[in-house]
Amino acid sequence: MRRAEPNNESEVSQEVQKEREEAVGETAEEVVEEAADERIASLQQQLAEMEDRLLRATAEFENYKKRRQRESEELLRYGHETLIRELLPVLDSFERAIVSSEGTRDYQAFHDGIELILQQLSEVLRQAGVERMSPVGELFDPHRHEAVGVCAHEEIEPEHIATVVEPGYEMHGRVVRAPKVMIVRPDVVQPDSEEIESE
């Protein structure tokens, strides 16, 4: 179909205006499409960069976890190395004492040597933070002491510790081995010395 020719100037000007508006509309759509395409491309690039950073961070975190696991295993395996090094001279002293006792039967010298070794061992443990517990006279605490019996005692109050059967040790204030103790109870009858002699 052929387009009708405009009759007057006003119709021509309206026609030109309409064509201009259509051209501007097409150009605006193209501009919007181009802007949208550019924005999409930019967002896709940002997404790719973020995915790459996430993958790298994940890999770094996995490596960190593996490294910490190795360090923990090494700490468990070799954590007591310093203490062991300090205990080895004590072991050497015991071996020397045994060797020297084979050549002589001097009980006093052997006894003195063992006492020195005990002092040496006690010092190594003290430097490691290990202290011997001396709870005689203290109120019995089931969290810190292990009761192995009861007894009567004239000078120590009931529910207090009368004697230590086996010593206990603590390390930096934490009980490593509870001392085995005898507790004073008022209802315990102490046998007379005469009864003990007659048996």
Question: Could you explain the architecture of this structure?
Answer:
By secondary structure, the chain is of the alpha+beta class. The protein folds into three domains: 9-78; 80-128; 132-190, Roll (Nucleotide Exchange Factor Grpe, Chain A, domain 2). 60% of the residues lie in helices and 15% in strands. The chain has four helices and six strands. It has a three-stranded antiparallel sheet with strand order 1-4-5. It has a three-stranded mixed sheet with strand order 2-6-3, with no helix packed on it. α2 (81-103) runs antiparallel to α3 (107-127). The longest helix has 70 residues, at 9-78. It is elongated and about 140 Å long.
List the helices and strands and how they pair.
Blueprint lengths: L8 H70 L2 H23 L3 H21 L2 E4 L12 E6 L9 E6 L1 E4 L2 E4 L2 E5 L8 H6 L1
Parallel strand pairs: 2-6
Antiparallel strand pairs: 1-4, 3-6, 4-5
Helix pairs in contact: 2-3
Query: So how many helices?
Result: 4
By DSSP, the count of extended strands is 6
Termini distance?
Answer: 142 Å
Major sheet summary line: 3 strands, antiparallel
- Helix fraction, binned, reads 55-70%
Q: Strand order within the widest sheet? A: 1-4-5
User: Number of domains in the coordinates?
Assistant: 3
Global shape? elongated
Mean pLDDT: 85
Broad structural category: alpha+beta
Give the percentage of residues in beta strands: 5-15%
Backbone CA Rg: 46 Å
pLDDT < 50 stretches: 193-199
Order of helices and strands: HHHEEEEEEH
